[in-house]
Target: PRC-barrel domain-containing protein
Amino acid sequence: MVAKDTQVFISRVVGLPIVDAAGDQVGRVKDVVCHLRADGKAPRVKGLVVELFARARIFVPMVRVHGIAPTHVAILGQVDTRRFKRRETEILIAADLLNRVIGNDRRTRIADISMHQVRNREWELSSAALRSTTRVGRFGLGGRNEARVASWREIPELILRTGRTPAHLIAEFSEMKAADIAQELHDMEPESLAAVVEALDDETLAEALEELPEHEQIELISALDTDRAADVLAEMDPDDAADLIKDLPSDVAEDLLQRMEPEEALDVRRLLMYEEFTAGGMMTPEPVILDTDATVAQALANVRIDSLTPALASMVFVTRPPLETPSGRYIGAVHIQRLLREPPTTLVATLLDEGLEPLPPDAPLALVSRFFATYNLVVAPVVNAEGHLVGAVTVDDVLDHMLPDDWRGDQMDEIDADEFDEVSRG
Model:
């Protein structure tokens, strides 16, 4: 597999087979997707366009790419099998750039572009291989090819132009937290908002949507094409998606659920069975769950997953199979601090917090908040009457439900007022 900072030329990746954790081939790489960034930073590689054996093309984010070898690309975890839809601000390296001329220089073409891993499963473009043809003589003689490696900055298409275009805003958003992106969306005029939302990828839009006031969430999701709205809801945390769907007209909500992937819709439907201000209504159905024979090393590997929030990564839960919610019989929970103090071969099931009783799904908010305060927790298990783990409540879920309904809107308006005061004083 490729070591950090090793350059990988994209022409050598295109066409490679994609293999899953079991070593089975699931498709082939067709292209590499990147987006531009502000402040002169190298374009970031978002993921791969993969053609499945059914000829459908899907998107595989780089966080799912475990390694790139000369013979194949290895991926981990489940991938979204929905057909790939290109966003306006995305660049497809093979389709858009390879073998293209550079600007007005008709004799220089882009032979290849390389990328390298800058952090765990984060990739950036690094250089370009250029091929130039010297001027051909009168009778077609004397021309020859010359090759050189140049910085990505010599490719005009990879340089972000100044201005407040959707492309520029998307580039800025790539360096921002979800709450800050939500603030930007909150402050936009309707026309600009529509253009930026159209250009945003589903995952970024979903994360920002979770940080907007409830009425703005409803307005934004209602303005989207129905299929796009279903895709964005599928990228949201199931508990946030369920809260949003509860506020939509019943026919609209059911239509969106029908258009979501069945497994994702099932998670949301399960949450909709519970009252909003209960442990079941606040929980996420995707905590870290381990089998009884799991070791500390396996547990620590699971909590390193990039998509986990710090709260969810602070505790693992041990159950009998199946290991998806609703799980098999709940055994117990282990704090990450305990895992860090034990040898890697120790069985997680021997480290359970014996004093931690799980919450029932119908536990009201008042009881849940006292539970967190009593045990100094940031996440707690939710177990049903049959003894199955059905989810976990995090402290941010509790705070969301304890604060006033429009606390996000109030906070954003306060930020606007503070910025106005600074401008006035300046």
Observations:
- The longest strand covers residues 105-119.
- The chain is about 35% helix and 25% strand.
- Residues 95-134+144-158 form one domain.
- The chain has a mean pLDDT of 88.
